[in-house]
Design a protein that fits this description.
The chain contains six helices and no strands. It has a domain of 30 residues. The protein is mainly alpha-helical and 149 residues long. Helix 5 runs antiparallel to helix 6.
């Protein structure tokens, strides 16, 4: 853990991500199958825009919005493309009949496995033998999730 991060923020941030992810999958599975993808996402992103504006109350811009915009790089555009891909992907996945729990686990485990080399070689994250063992447990879990009964 980074010693500069307050303990509350350390636990709150991961709790928020976990709860939001679970809520995301519940809502994505509950999206009506007869609604147009683009219309659904248009409303989703309009509401997300408003929620993000409210975020300025809690995370105010200290040097002005123009100065903040100048600090951005390709990652903001890449994140937007990735988010839309995730949204379309899961809406299609659930419309295709995937099980809520299995689809979410499968996607997250496989995505995590794909990110391991990036974590090691690009971001210089260290991986221990316990982490490697965990990767094999995840792979075994994927086999078990897809095991024919």
């Amino acid at each position: 853990m980074n010693k500069k991060v307050p303990m509350f923020l350390f636990y709150f941030s991961i709790t928020l991500a976990i709860c939001s992810s679970a809520f995301y999958h519940f809502v994505a599975k509950s999206t009506p199958t007869n609604v147009n993808f683009a219309v659904s996402l248009l409303v989703t992103y309009a509401v997300a825009f408003l929620v993000t504006l409210i975020g300025f109350v809690f995370f105010p811009v200290t040097h002005g919005i123009t100065a903040e915009l100048k600090q951005l790089n390709w990652a903001s555009i890449g994140l937007a493309v990735a988010i839309v891909g995730i949204e379309f992907g899961f809406l299609l996945t659930y419309r295709a009949g995937w099980n809520l729990g299995i689809a979410a686990v499968l996607v997250n485990v496989v995505a995590s496995l794909i990110l391991v080399p990036a974590a090691i070689f690009v971001f210089k994250d260290e991986i221990s033998w316990v982490n490697v063992a965990g990767i094999f447990v995840c792979l075994a879990g994927l086999v078990m999730l897809n095991w024919k009964r």
